[in-house]
Amino acid sequence: MSPIRRAIRWIGPLLGGALLLAAGVFAVRWGLGLYYHAAYPLAYTALIDAACDQKGLDPALVYAVVRTESGFDPDAQSPVGARGLMQLMPDAYDWVRMRRGEPAEGADYEDLYDPAVCVDYGTDMLRLLLAEFGSVRNTLCAYHAGWGSVKSWLADPQYAPDGRQVEQIPFADTRDYVQKVERAMEIYRRLYPDKMN
């Protein structure tokens, strides 16, 4: 057998194997892309995008909070009473209403199941917490554990050595929550780079 024929006998299967490998890699990447787009959807875009534009919020933050809090289920209710897409507690709803100068009386907590209401008040809460605490991490801690918890953590060098940034989150559930939202923000930015700023 000539050297050329021998080379062809080896090159053919190698090229075939390389093509199969490339097709497999493509299929896995395509499948993962479909999975991630399904797991990290863009839902309620008109409401969320308008609120982010109006309030100067990063869309990746809001989409990540909604995904983590309710999985985009407007009827979600937690065992402790948080409601709607952004899982606002009645006292958080009252706090935002007070900060907006709205009367305390007349608040209907069932309104939190309306996506427009929940996104409006939930994004206002994020905006107010960002203004108060100055970082996304502190804001997420306050959104989950409460304003008072973060104030006390910032005053304790064990949790906030510089007094400005919570480095050690003492509540395990809040620590897990913050990690989930931060991870979801990264994924949203990677999946939708043109939409997230």
From TrEMBL:
This is Lytic transglycosylase domain-containing protein. It comes from the Bacteria. Residues 47-157 form the Transglycosylase SLT domain. PANTHER family: MEMBRANE-BOUND LYTIC MUREIN TRANSGLYCOSYLASE C, SOLUBLE LYTIC MUREIN TRANSGLYCOSYLASE-RELATED. InterPro entries: Lysozyme-like_dom_sf, Transglycosylase_SLT_dom_1. CDD domains: LT_Slt70-like.
